[in-house]
Design goal:
The protein has 361 residues and is of the alpha/beta class. It folds into 2 domains: 112 residues, Aspartate Aminotransferase, domain 1; 218 residues, Type I PLP-dependent aspartate aminotransferase-like (Major domain) (Aspartate Aminotransferase, domain 2). Helices cover 39% and strands 16% of the residues. The chain is built from 12 helices and 14 strands. The chain has a 7-stranded mixed beta sheet with strand order 2-8-7-6-5-3-4, with helices on both faces. Strand 3, helix 5 and strand 4 form a beta-alpha-beta unit. The relative contact order is 0.18.
Length: 361
């Protein structure tokens, strides 16, 4: 298949068997309709949202300390990231993307004819975001630098000092920095958006990962007003406008974010304690503790690829983890801990049994 049109992780995620214990997901456990107060009354199929539903633009702007004209709504964070690429890139431009990384962030620039250049975030450095590596990867054609905060797939934090340094590099290059922050609200880090650091920065997020509202596909982009205008014109071509049903319900959600994030953090607190205890008990594994979020990215000591381990878990123990090859780090695997607690416990027990049996060989 032409790699311009291929995101292998997304294909795998959509076509793999459904396991008994699913540790491959990264969305917080879905809310029931009743957990979003007033949801049924808010449902309507009409309303003006030509450039975004104004009450939603206002709610997002208030949450992140920007002006409403700096907000563009989108179809989830992946849709937001695609709009950024569509608005800013020309065929032949270079885009810098972190490695390991989330493969739709590679696929979107390639689909638009841009070239992807990688820079490393390394296990032995705690997956830190290193501006010197970004500087070493810059080319005269670099127009966009893409990072995740916290890092997908490791959960490592990207500190603001490093981001500011990267912003300076981008400004000298007349480039932008896209910071995918979809997991940020599931951490204890301040919700200050990277977009507030300067006009070089663009941040994307959604209600998908941190709030148990993945089904809404409600995303947004924060940027300078000049970039926002380009984003809106790109959206004219991609999908025109968002769903008014989604945007009305999203306004309702923004009025209840404190309640929703308290629910998410309660789930993640219990689940991370289970995962941390499990990881500490397994001498075969090494990992960097995530700053928060919903995932962790361990590796088996001395093993070059976790593919066979993941395949056997799925086939013989009805347990799904994400093989690290989908992120460009084949020795690792990703565990999600944002779902229901009992299946997580059962999945960890299955992983422990597979480790005992050395099912990577």
């Amino acid at each position: 298949m032409n790699p311009r049109f291929h995101a292998p992780y997304m294909e795998w995620a959509k076509t793999r068997p459904s396991p008994r214990f699913d540790l491959a997901g990264s969305n917080v456990l879905a809310c029931a309709v009743e957990e979003l107060d007033g949801a049924r009354d808010a449902l309507a199929f009409s309303g003006r949202n030509d450039s975004g539903y104004v009450p939603l633009l206002d709610a997002i702007a208030a949450r992140y300390g920007v002006r409403p004209d700096q907000v563009t709504t989108a179809q989830g964070t992946s849709g937001a990231n695609f709009l950024v690429c569509a608005a800013l890139l020309e065929p032949g431009d270079d885009v810098l993307v972190e490695a390991p990384g989330y493969d739709p962030l590679l696929g979107a620039p390639r689909l638009l004819g841009a070239n992807v250049v990688r820079f490393d975030r390394r296990f032995d450095e705690g997956w830190a975001l290193d501006p010197e590596r970004v500087a070493g990867a810059l080319t005269p054609r670099t127009r966009l630098i893409i990072v995740t905060r916290p890092h997908n797939p490791t959960g490592a934090h990207a500190d603001l000092v490093a981001l500011r340094d990267i912003g300076c590099l981008a400004a000298r290059q007349r480039a932008h920095v896209l910071v995918d922050e979809v997991y940020l609200d599931a951490t204890d880090v301040s919700p200050t958006a990277a977009a507030t650091l300067g006009d070089e920065f663009i941040s994307t997020s959604s209600l998908t990962k941190s709030y148990g509202l993945a089904g809404l596909r409600s995303g947004w982009i924060l940027s300078s007003n000049a970039v926002a205008e380009r984003l809106r014109r790109a959206r004219d071509v991609v999908d025109g406008t968002g769903s008014i049903v989604t945007e009305r319900l999203s306004v309702l959600a923004f009025g209840q974010l404190d309640k929703l994030i308290a629910r998410s953090r309660a789930i993640l607190g219990v689940n991370w304690a289970l995962v941390r205890d499990f990881l500490h008990s397994r001498p075969e594994l090494e990992y960097v503790e995530p700053a928060g979020g919903t995932v962790v990215f361990p590796r088996i000591r001395g093993v070059d690829s976790a593919d066979r381990f993941a395949e056997r878990l799925l086939q013989h123990r009805e347990t799904a983890i994400v093989p690290g090859r989908f992120f460009g780090a084949p020795a690792h695997f990703r565990i999600g801990f944002s779902g229901a607690t009992d299946p997580l416990r059962g999945g960890l027990e299955a992983v422990a049994e597979a480790l005992e049996a050395q099912e990577w060989s």
